[in-house]
Amino acid sequence: MDTARGGNNFTSDSCPKFIDSFLNNATVSSCHAISMLLQNSQSFFNTLKSPSALTAVLATACSSPMSACTEIMSDLASRMIKDDACGADYKLGNPTVTQTYAAMIAYQPIYQATCLKDPSTNAYCFVQAYGNNSKPDDAYVYFLPLGMAYPASSRPTCNQCLRSTMNVFGEAAQAKGQPLTQTYIPAALQINLACGPDFVNAAVAVGTKKAIAAGSREGRGRPNMELMGYVLMLSLAASVLGIH
């Protein structure tokens, strides 16, 4: 979020304080959430220009434990829109707040999608999408979980990466509260026009299942940040040492 807060007119001090608190939380930052970088990071935008640098970033992000980090992000999202944090700014549609909220609740589908690899090349699908200069439209699909509509003029590459990515998003679109409940079906229909009527599932029952990581907010209280920090540390250490 190196560009997100510049020039923002927050309604109170509580919102920027809340944002600073989680940006300075080592456990939160250890999740290396790609969802938090897609819209609000100039440095990540610059990284997209280098396949090798982007691959290294994804390798780090994909080494984080998805389940633990999903709970952390879900908990942060629910706390952020409360009145003592950024609730007023969320209701007013402050872009930093609404985009950050969407990035938090979309952590899991974006994690799963950006960690997919092309079975024919073993390269990250996300890296290939951004490195395909002949088909810049391939990158648009990754913004669907953030609530951004698929451009009507987009003509993606009809490959296994696209199909697998949309399969991930189709599953997540069934969860209540996900922005994908609004963006998945229109995108799937458009992709099928370009790639064939059965290329991806356009008949997903959106919003029919419980929210992703809802358990962290329903009866269990907040995740234990200290414990999850320890879990993250062990996971990252295991990745570095090649332990599985």
The largest sheet is: none
Strand content: under 5%
Number of helices: 12
Order of helices and strands: HHHHHHHHHHHH
Structural class: mainly alpha
Shape: globular
The number of domains = 2
Determine the mean pLDDT.
86
Nearest-angstrom radius of gyration? 18 Å
Helical content (DSSP H or I, runs of 4+): 40-55%
Number of strands: 0
Poorly predicted spans = 215-244
Quaternary status of these chains?
Answer: single chain
Distance between the termini: 32 Å
Describe this structure in words.
By secondary structure, this protein is mainly alpha-helical. It folds into 2 domains: 1-105 and 214-244, no CATH class; 134-212, no CATH class. 50% of the residues lie in helices and 0% in strands. The chain has 12 helices and no strands. The protein has helices at residues 14-23, 26-29, 42-47, 51-61, 66-80, 87-91, 95-105, 107-114, 125-131, 160-172, 180-195, 225-241. Helix 5 (66-80) packs antiparallel against helix 7 (95-105) and helix 10 (160-172) packs antiparallel against helix 11. The chain is globular. 36% of the residues are buried. The model is unreliable at 215-244 (pLDDT under 50).
